[in-house]
Amino acid sequence: DLLAAVGLPEPRRLLASHPHQLSGGMRQRVLIAMALLGNPSLLVADEPTTALDVTVQAQVLALIAGLVRERGLALMLISHDLGVVSASCARVAVMYAGTVVEEAPTGPLLERPLHPYSQGLIAAVPDLDRPEVRPKGIPGSIPSLLDPPGGCRFHPRCERATQRCRTEKPLLRELLPGRRVACHHADA
């Protein structure tokens, strides 16, 4: 029944299939059906559209949105794809090296990020409306989580870093209504 609920044709036949006999989109739908087996109240979707073409990606996102609506589920979407986040989420928590650095409603965060890492993520995405503006990468490397830097974990890559950033971990604080940022130098 769940295979049919996620839009897979001939669910009885699919039960006898092997993963290599299914397309990427079909495998994603099987995984979604498996996630629904325990009748959860929270659906955690970790990179649900990775390696899918844009058409199948849209179908999977529409399926997830429909299931959330129909079953009254909460959704936690984990993704590096800001387009997917923009289309699917009401709120966003940006994490860097295992720490939440910014949390806000999706639109305001994508339009005006307050944390330097969030700003770097947005700047790294090509702007199709302004092709003359070249995407910029974030300098440096991701730190080891076995031995993370002291203070703010982003400080080795941050242009605004000061001595305080190197020694004192910034707390997640509300800068604007509904917007929290963990940065000593973020301005509202």
Task: Please explain how this structure is put together.
By secondary structure, this protein is α+β, with helices and mostly antiparallel strands. Helix content is 35%, strand content 16%. The protein is built from eight helices and six strands. The chain has a four-stranded antiparallel beta sheet with strand order 3-4-6-5. The chain has a two-stranded parallel ribbon with strand order 1-2. Helix 4 links the parallel strand 1 and strand 2. It is elongated. The protein starts with a helix and ends in a 7-residue tail after the last strand.
Topology of this protein?
Blueprint: H1 2-5, H2 11-15, H3 24-36, E1 42-46, H4 54-71, E2 74-78, H5 82-88, E3 91-96, E4 99-105, H6 106-111, H7 116-123, H8 163-167, E5 173-176, E6 179-181
Parallel strand pairs: 1-2
Antiparallel strand pairs: 3-4, 4-6, 5-6
Helix pairs in contact: 3-4
